[in-house]
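Question (not urgent): is this output format expected?
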Amino acid sequence: MQKSKKKQIVIAGAGLIGSTMAIALASKGFDVTVVDGAKKKDRIERNKGRTYALSRASKNLLSNLGLWDPKKLHVSPIENIVLSTRNETSNTIGHLAEFNKESSKIGPSSYMIEDAYLRAVLSSEIDRNTKIEIVDSTEVIQAETNSFEAKIILSDKSSISTEILIISGGRESAFVKRLNKRFFRKSYNQVAIVGNLSHKNMHNFAAHQIFLPGGPLAILPLKGKRSTFVWTLPIEMGNKLSKSKGEVFINHLKENIGDILINPSVIGEKKMFPLYLRFLRDSVDNRKVFIGDSAQAIHPLAGQGLNIGLRDVASLVDTLSNGKKLGLDLGGVDLLKRYETWRSFDRISLTTYTDLINALFSNNNFYLKALREFGMSVIDRSPLLKDFFIKEAAGEYGNLPDLLKQ
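Got this back:
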């Protein structure tokens, strides 16, 4: 085996969260090495066509890192959020509630952003940043820790010694599986079909969430006359619908979205993902910390998957920066426990919230349907409640780390 190299901080995973973490740490003066088992072009291809709803707090993080350029990122603001339900007897779309930009004096609560553009901006910054080293096509196989360092064994049989290993390998990371961490996991018996659409009408920057018996269908605005859809369905129905092509699929979509989009057609390929709740009980270990999808995977109905990972980034950067100023061991359990305590309430509350909302809306129970429609009507008539929910969607709650502040 080759002689072990010494690095200050190592990140396992060069996805959006791992890349943002590297840039954020470098901005605070840390030297960072990012290791990923895939090639750069494979990561781009694997996530082709994916889109994300970015909260205002997450936008602040990119701004504070000098990465927020609406033109380069092809950003589409979400200026209105319309919640509705499909009336099965009349086959019409029934209004539940609407949240518009006038309810917020700061600007849109969320922005739609496409994976390819965000990845390109992050990659460009990493390439020019002398404090960041990327090691592609090399997987973390093993990590041995002691009181002084973590020794990381890589797939090319080299090794790296570091103060702290940040694990951001995604939901199905082989390395995370080998660590045998204890996860709470719950299957929703649902899948999400996702894809992008072109259409003839303007979307007017409105996001629609239509609650259907099998699960919610979201239509979200992209740049130009394009939108993205996220359709939650029971597994059997989702498998059948995902295999339908062309007009067959579009006709099913039209039946459920009414006149929201005129003459929609699918751009590129639609994809399907199994949906489950996955929550890591202990997100820190000796010289290891898990962030993003490596720590938690939540239901996509609230569009908070990327945002919760970026909150992990901002909070961990704050914790490590303060620890560095005090001369503390970056991988020490005491320092990492501060991070875990800070993040625990947000992680638990958001996973619980998305779980309950999915249970409430992904069914056709008469009593639950009456309850949710009554609740939505109350919210729709209350400016105070609307402002509260907009602030939640914007990610502006709790004890915010500096990078999430405007």
